[in-house]
Amino acid sequence: MTAAAPADRRRASGRRRGVVVVLVLAIGAFAVGGPVWLRTAGSTVLAGEVPVEVTGTQAAPGAAAAALVLLAAAAALALVGPIGRWVVAAVIAAGGVLLAASALAVTSDPGAAAGAAVAEATGVAALAAPVTLTAAPIVAVALGAVAVAVAGWIAATSRRWPLSSRRHDRGVPAAGPSPDDDRAAWDLLTRGEDPTDPQLR
Description:
By secondary structure, the protein is mainly α. It has one domain (4-165). The protein has seven helices and three strands, in the order αββααααβαα.
Protein backbone atom coordinates (compact mmCIF):
# COMPACT_ATOMS: atom_id res chain seq x y z
CA MET A 1 0.00 0.00 0.00
CA THR A 2 1.43 3.39 -0.99
CA ALA A 3 1.66 6.38 1.32
CA ALA A 4 -0.84 8.25 -0.88
CA ALA A 5 -3.58 5.67 -0.29
CA PRO A 6 -4.68 6.96 3.16
CA ALA A 7 -4.79 10.52 1.80
CA ASP A 8 -6.90 9.36 -1.15
CA ARG A 9 -9.29 7.62 1.21
CA ARG A 10 -9.59 10.76 3.33
CA ARG A 11 -10.38 12.84 0.25
CA ALA A 12 -12.97 10.30 -0.91
CA SER A 13 -14.54 10.27 2.55
CA GLY A 14 -14.76 14.07 2.36
CA ARG A 15 -16.96 13.79 -0.73
CA ARG A 16 -19.13 11.12 0.87
CA ARG A 17 -19.46 13.19 4.03
CA GLY A 18 -20.53 16.21 1.98
CA VAL A 19 -23.18 14.20 0.14
CA VAL A 20 -24.52 12.73 3.38
CA VAL A 21 -24.63 16.12 5.14
CA VAL A 22 -26.53 17.77 2.27
CA LEU A 23 -28.89 14.79 2.06
CA VAL A 24 -29.59 15.08 5.80
CA LEU A 25 -30.29 18.79 5.36
CA ALA A 26 -32.73 18.02 2.54
CA ILE A 27 -34.53 15.44 4.67
CA GLY A 28 -34.61 17.90 7.56
CA ALA A 29 -36.08 20.59 5.32
CA PHE A 30 -38.79 18.19 4.17
CA ALA A 31 -39.47 17.10 7.75
CA VAL A 32 -39.70 20.60 9.19
CA GLY A 33 -42.33 21.59 6.63
CA GLY A 34 -44.77 18.91 7.76
CA PRO A 35 -45.55 19.94 11.35
CA VAL A 36 -47.78 22.82 12.44
CA TRP A 37 -46.09 26.24 12.30
CA LEU A 38 -49.04 28.44 13.29
CA ARG A 39 -52.17 28.06 15.38
CA THR A 40 -55.05 30.48 15.40
CA ALA A 41 -58.83 30.49 14.94
CA GLY A 42 -61.46 31.88 12.61
CA SER A 43 -65.18 32.16 13.02
CA THR A 44 -68.27 31.26 11.06
CA VAL A 45 -71.93 32.02 11.64
CA LEU A 46 -72.85 28.36 11.94
CA ALA A 47 -69.87 26.85 13.75
CA GLY A 48 -68.70 29.81 15.77
CA GLU A 49 -64.96 29.81 16.51
CA VAL A 50 -63.03 27.36 14.32
CA PRO A 51 -59.48 26.33 15.33
CA VAL A 52 -57.03 26.58 12.45
CA GLU A 53 -53.60 24.99 12.27
CA VAL A 54 -51.15 25.94 9.51
CA THR A 55 -48.35 23.57 8.50
CA GLY A 56 -44.99 24.67 7.18
CA THR A 57 -45.80 23.78 3.59
CA GLN A 58 -48.96 25.91 3.80
CA ALA A 59 -47.33 28.84 5.54
CA ALA A 60 -44.07 28.83 3.57
CA PRO A 61 -44.20 27.06 0.19
CA GLY A 62 -40.63 28.20 -0.38
CA ALA A 63 -39.49 25.82 2.35
CA ALA A 64 -40.67 22.82 0.34
CA ALA A 65 -38.95 24.20 -2.76
CA ALA A 66 -35.73 24.61 -0.76
CA ALA A 67 -35.94 20.97 0.33
CA LEU A 68 -36.16 19.87 -3.31
CA VAL A 69 -33.19 22.07 -4.19
CA LEU A 70 -31.08 20.53 -1.44
CA LEU A 71 -32.10 17.01 -2.45
CA ALA A 72 -31.07 17.64 -6.05
CA ALA A 73 -27.81 19.21 -4.88
CA ALA A 74 -26.96 16.11 -2.81
CA ALA A 75 -27.39 13.91 -5.89
CA ALA A 76 -25.36 16.27 -8.07
CA LEU A 77 -22.54 16.53 -5.53
CA ALA A 78 -21.89 12.81 -5.88
CA LEU A 79 -21.36 13.12 -9.63
CA VAL A 80 -19.83 16.43 -10.62
CA GLY A 81 -16.18 17.35 -11.02
CA PRO A 82 -14.17 20.15 -9.39
CA ILE A 83 -15.82 23.04 -11.23
CA GLY A 84 -19.28 21.54 -10.84
CA ARG A 85 -18.79 21.35 -7.09
CA TRP A 86 -18.54 25.13 -6.91
CA VAL A 87 -21.83 25.38 -8.80
CA VAL A 88 -23.44 22.83 -6.47
CA ALA A 89 -22.11 24.72 -3.44
CA ALA A 90 -23.78 27.88 -4.75
CA VAL A 91 -27.04 25.96 -5.25
CA ILE A 92 -26.85 24.61 -1.69
CA ALA A 93 -26.31 28.13 -0.37
CA ALA A 94 -29.28 29.36 -2.40
CA GLY A 95 -31.44 26.55 -1.00
CA GLY A 96 -30.40 27.46 2.52
CA VAL A 97 -31.17 31.13 1.98
CA LEU A 98 -34.57 30.25 0.50
CA LEU A 99 -35.41 28.01 3.45
CA ALA A 100 -34.34 30.57 6.05
CA ALA A 101 -35.99 33.49 4.27
CA SER A 102 -39.28 31.61 3.88
CA ALA A 103 -39.35 30.78 7.58
CA LEU A 104 -38.32 34.29 8.61
CA ALA A 105 -41.14 35.73 6.51
CA VAL A 106 -43.60 33.65 8.54
CA THR A 107 -42.10 34.58 11.90
CA SER A 108 -41.97 38.28 11.04
CA ASP A 109 -45.60 38.41 9.86
CA PRO A 110 -47.47 35.33 11.07
CA GLY A 111 -50.83 37.03 10.61
CA ALA A 112 -50.50 37.04 6.82
CA ALA A 113 -49.93 33.29 6.60
CA ALA A 114 -52.57 32.59 9.23
CA GLY A 115 -55.10 34.85 7.52
CA ALA A 116 -54.82 32.93 4.27
CA ALA A 117 -55.35 29.63 6.07
CA VAL A 118 -58.32 30.99 8.05
CA ALA A 119 -59.91 32.32 4.87
CA GLU A 120 -59.53 28.90 3.28
CA ALA A 121 -61.08 27.18 6.32
CA THR A 122 -63.92 29.61 7.04
CA GLY A 123 -64.31 31.78 3.97
CA VAL A 124 -63.43 34.88 6.01
CA ALA A 125 -59.87 36.09 6.52
CA ALA A 126 -60.60 37.71 9.89
CA LEU A 127 -58.80 36.08 12.83
CA ALA A 128 -60.82 35.20 15.91
CA ALA A 129 -57.77 34.42 18.10
CA PRO A 130 -54.13 35.47 18.36
CA VAL A 131 -51.61 33.65 16.19
CA THR A 132 -49.33 31.27 18.06
CA LEU A 133 -46.00 30.22 16.54
CA THR A 134 -44.49 26.80 17.18
CA ALA A 135 -40.76 26.06 17.22
CA ALA A 136 -40.80 24.61 13.69
CA PRO A 137 -40.12 27.86 11.78
CA ILE A 138 -37.18 28.61 14.09
CA VAL A 139 -35.79 25.16 13.30
CA ALA A 140 -36.24 25.92 9.60
CA VAL A 141 -34.25 29.14 9.96
CA ALA A 142 -31.48 27.20 11.72
CA LEU A 143 -31.44 24.55 8.99
CA GLY A 144 -31.16 27.24 6.34
CA ALA A 145 -28.20 28.79 8.15
CA VAL A 146 -26.51 25.40 8.45
CA ALA A 147 -27.02 24.80 4.72
CA VAL A 148 -25.25 28.07 3.92
CA ALA A 149 -22.38 27.08 6.22
CA VAL A 150 -22.16 23.64 4.59
CA ALA A 151 -22.02 25.29 1.16
CA GLY A 152 -19.03 27.33 2.33
CA TRP A 153 -17.33 24.21 3.68
CA ILE A 154 -17.87 22.38 0.38
CA ALA A 155 -16.50 25.29 -1.62
CA ALA A 156 -13.41 25.44 0.61
CA THR A 157 -12.60 21.72 0.77
CA SER A 158 -13.95 20.14 -2.43
CA ARG A 159 -10.87 21.04 -4.48
CA ARG A 160 -9.07 18.27 -2.57
CA TRP A 161 -11.72 15.65 -3.30
CA PRO A 162 -10.93 12.96 -5.89
CA LEU A 163 -12.49 13.04 -9.32
CA SER A 164 -15.74 11.12 -9.63
CA SER A 165 -14.59 9.16 -12.69
CA ARG A 166 -11.38 9.61 -14.64
CA ARG A 167 -12.87 8.36 -17.87
CA HIS A 168 -15.03 11.49 -18.06
CA ASP A 169 -12.06 13.86 -17.70
CA ARG A 170 -10.66 15.65 -20.72
CA GLY A 171 -7.03 15.15 -21.49
CA VAL A 172 -6.79 11.65 -20.00
CA PRO A 173 -5.48 9.37 -22.77
CA ALA A 174 -7.23 6.09 -23.38
CA ALA A 175 -5.46 3.02 -22.09
CA GLY A 176 -3.55 1.06 -24.70
CA PRO A 177 -0.17 -0.36 -25.59
CA SER A 178 2.72 2.06 -26.04
CA PRO A 179 4.83 2.07 -29.22
CA ASP A 180 7.67 0.40 -27.27
CA ASP A 181 5.38 -2.47 -26.33
CA ASP A 182 4.36 -2.90 -29.97
CA ARG A 183 7.99 -3.05 -31.13
CA ALA A 184 8.90 -5.56 -28.43
CA ALA A 185 5.93 -7.76 -29.37
CA TRP A 186 6.93 -7.61 -33.06
CA ASP A 187 10.52 -8.58 -32.23
CA LEU A 188 9.29 -11.60 -30.31
CA LEU A 189 7.05 -12.65 -33.20
CA THR A 190 9.93 -12.42 -35.67
CA ARG A 191 11.96 -14.75 -33.47
CA GLY A 192 9.05 -17.20 -33.38
CA GLU A 193 8.16 -16.54 -29.75
CA ASP A 194 4.74 -15.86 -28.23
CA PRO A 195 4.52 -12.19 -27.07
CA THR A 196 1.60 -13.05 -24.78
CA ASP A 197 3.71 -15.48 -22.73
CA PRO A 198 4.02 -13.85 -19.26
CA GLN A 199 7.51 -15.38 -18.83
CA LEU A 200 8.79 -13.28 -21.73
CA ARG A 201 7.52 -9.96 -20.26
